[in-house]
Amino acid sequence: MATSPEHPPRLVVIDDEPQIRRLLRLALESHGYEAVEAASGQEGVLAVAQSRPEAVVLDLLLPDCSGVEVIRRIREWSEVPILVLSALGQEREKVSALDAGADDYLTKPFGVEELLARIRVMLRRALRPAESPHFSSGGLEIDLSARRVWAKGEELHLTATEYALLRLFVRHAGKVLTHRQILQEVWGPKAVEQIHYLRVYIGRLRDKIEADPARPLLLLTESGVGYRLALLD
Questions:
Q1: SS3 for 113?
Q2: What integer pLDDT is reported at residue 4 of this predicted model?
Q3: Average of per-residue pLDDT values in the chain
Q4: Are residues 31 and 23 in contact, defined by beta-carbon separation less than 8 angstroms?
Q5: What is the spatial distance between Cα 210 and Cα 196, in angstroms, rounded to a whole number?
């Protein structure tokens, strides 16, 4: 949904805790967003359908259904960016939410500044040209139409698998991809448990695209979950 001066970016906040909804609403409204609140999964799905927001902030624990089920229902008809809020220790649920189509997650308790930064990244990703063959982030340059990659001021030579892996990250830049999602897309369904294999290729890519592979700024690890290609200026 396009924004205009009369319509600030609208977010639907789905959480059954009134104090969390109030915190989120005040934080969002003080930074120029409009917040629509929903206290249950059913209310949330309806609010997304009716208000057509630019993004959704969704708690995983809801009184009537799981947050994962809410994501699946929304993804039947919408690609709206979804940021999941999860409690400490909900790693399995977090991964399930991302596999179901969530774009990012925050673990409670969280800082407002980090929340706003994650929302900005989701919105930037949603506004990127859908079919652009050119990608740029933090010194990494890719021409997908020519299958050429540049980093650290020089053209890189990638293997077919390295390029397929990088292309997947570019298609979903700014979004967390789980280990299972990556392995299935690049190596096929029989490889979804081969996380050690994925780590080897992530290391190879970092050696080629990062200024300091030991302190990556582009290809980031989401501990216990997967990886993310950062959107940098």
A1: helix
A2: 45
A3: 92
A4: no
A5: 20
